[in-house]
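To illustrate this point, we now present one chain and its tokenised fold:
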Amino acid sequence: MTNTERPISLYGFLRPRPERADEVRRILSSFVEPTRQEPGNLQYHLHEHEDGRFFLYEVWRSQEDLDRHNATPPLRAFLENLPEFLEGAPEGYFNTMLSPYPETGPVPV
């Protein structure tokens, strides 16, 4: 990463339909390890809140890396059917990081 490049972060909440919560948990969990192996992925974390919402936090080296990730067939299939899985729209945020990211690579998990 050059000094002028800044990582891209993507984070947000997903509220699954109660009858689909286990399925959404399984699908989202299945994305974690493969995504962490993708070129350009710096961090990928999945959390589950007490109220049943899922929180995703991702950091990508570049917009191109994020675009490549978003084009993967398993993620595309999930996103194309998102209304079937969720109550309401996802609450998502997409930003360029202002703080410098360590040059040493991903943070150990």
